[in-house]
Amino acid sequence: MENINILFGRRIKELRLRQNISQEELGFRCQLSKNYVSDVERGRRNVSIKVVEKFAAGLRVPVYYLFKWHDGDESVHL
Amino acid sequence: MENINILFGRRIKELRLRQNISQEELGFRCQLSKNYVSDVERGRRNVSIKVVEKFAAGLRVPVYYLFKWHDGDESVHL
């Protein structure tokens, strides 16, 4: 499995681009700097779940959605 | 919305109890101490996503599943 920071960063970028917003705009929404957003998208930050929550709020999606990078995962239920 | 650390901790505990394993056993599986697991379950730690990944591996669920605390969230698709 790939590094979770890389997977998370890729997912943030994907959702940001789907909404057609810049890193600066996303940073503004999340109260994070543009550089921090850039670092996260490149997998260079091991963010805490408090920061994860900020991204979810900024992207207006539920938190779990930021970790849904494989459709196949959807079938798992315990 | 409740503090994400509280929600996350409650979810970890819920999934752990559903598998009938102790905090010690979960700690062993995740390579974390029993005390650390206990702190997380009480919402006293702001864990990083690397640690989130350890919990997912220890509980044998996909990462996103640890954040699925509201069934209502499932309807969100962008």
UniProtKB/TrEMBL annotation, chains A, B:
The organism that produces this protein has a lineage beginning with: Bacteria, Bacillati, Bacillota, Erysipelotrichia, Erysipelotrichales
What Pfam family is a match, any one? HTH_3
- Ranges of residues in domain HTH cro/C1-type: 12-66
Secreted as a keyword?
no
Please give the GO cellular component terms listed in this UniProt entry. Answer: cytosol
Name one molecular function that GO assigns to this entry: DNA-binding transcription factor activity
Q: Which organism is it from?
A: Longibaculum muris
Q: Which domain of life is it from?
A: Bacteria
Protein name as catalogued = Helix-turn-helix protein
Q: Which UniProt keywords apply?
A: DNA-binding, Transcription, Transcription regulation
Signal sequence interval, chain numbering: none
- Database matches in InterPro entries: Cro/C1-type_HTH, Lambda_DNA-bd_dom_sf, TransReg_Diox_bact_type
